[in-house]
Specification:
Largest sheet: 6 strands, parallel
Structural class: alpha/beta
Number of helices: 7
Order of helices and strands: HEHEHEHEHEHEEHE
Radius of gyration: 19 Å
Strand order of the largest sheet: 3-2-1-4-5-6
Strand content: 5-15%
Distance between the termini: 49 Å
Length: 253
């Protein structure tokens, strides 16, 4: 039995190596996402807004969730100007029941989400003992648990059709720790583990039409990290964030 397991493992390693070499040498064809219903959390600014516009240019229908209504409406306007449909919603991602409520509203008013991009996040930017308990809880609610709740809302329909794509935004800080970002790094480490296990579950249950993607951006200059300074020769040659104080904002990056 052990020998059989080892043989299967060796087979999988060889297949993975061949696939990696193939994908390196041959540029994969872009996935056609025209008319897909794409939901992006934290869409009011930064990476969220950038993703919304990128999907808009590819002919998607955009569902935009953020706590910053004014900026989210601006994102919706930019999406419309790019020639795509946009449906902005106010959603406090720190509240599980609100995520479920707005999720059902989206399904009723727009349709079944086929691409879910979990992008929203917050950060405190203080040393561990200076972080208020309620703000630590809020970081985990928005940066990690909200991912659980949004996926619980939209995954059942994806499973029913064996079709969909879940994108979870982590961070390079979900792979290594940084000074004064205890809350943020911890939540992003959790997202890495969550995405890995979720992917395994979908594979195990043979839902091969549902894809997952984990994204770990590094050193992106956005509102979320205003006031951060980078020190060279650290953190994979990029820098360490020496943050004296960071403001919590509605949309991630």
């Amino acid at each position: 039995m052990l020998i059989v397991e080892i043989l299967f493992l060796l087979r999988d390693i060889v297949i993975a190596c061949v696939a990696a070499v193939w994908n390196f040498l041959i540029t994969p064809k872009y996935k056609d996402v025209k008319d897909e219903i794409v939901l992006i959390t934290g869409s009011a600014n930064g990476i969220g807004r950038g993703l919304a516009l990128a999907f808009a240019r590819r002919g998607c229908i955009l569902v935009l969730w953020d706590i910053d209504e004014a900026e989210n409406e601006k994102t919706a306007q930019l999406v419309t100007e790019a020639g795509a449909k946009a449906y902005p919603y106010y959603c406090d991602l720190s509240k599980r029941k609100e995520i479920y409520r707005i999720g059902k509203k989206v399904q009723k008013e727009v349709g079944d989400v086929t691409i879910l991009v979990n992008n929203a996040g917050v950060v405190i930017g203080k040393s561990f003992l200076e972080c208020p308990d309620e703000e630590i809880e809020n970081s985990f609610q928005v940066n990690t648990l909200a991912y659980f709740w949004t996926i619980k809302v939209f995954l059942p329909k994806m499973i029913e059709k064996n079709y969909g794509h879940i994108v979870n935004m982590s961070s390079s800080l979900g792979l290594t720790g940084i000074n004064k970002l205890t809350d943020y790094c911890s939540t992003k480490f959790a997202v890495v583990g969550f995405n890995e296990v979720l992917s395994y579950e979908l594979q195990h249950d043979q839902y091969d039409g549902i894809k997952t993607t984990l994204i770990c951006p590094q050193c992106v200059k956005t509102r979320m990290f205003e006031g951060c300074k980078l020190r060279k020769n650290h953190f994979a040659g990029c820098g360490v964030m020496g943050c004296d104080e960071l403001c919590v904002v509605g949309g991630e990056r």
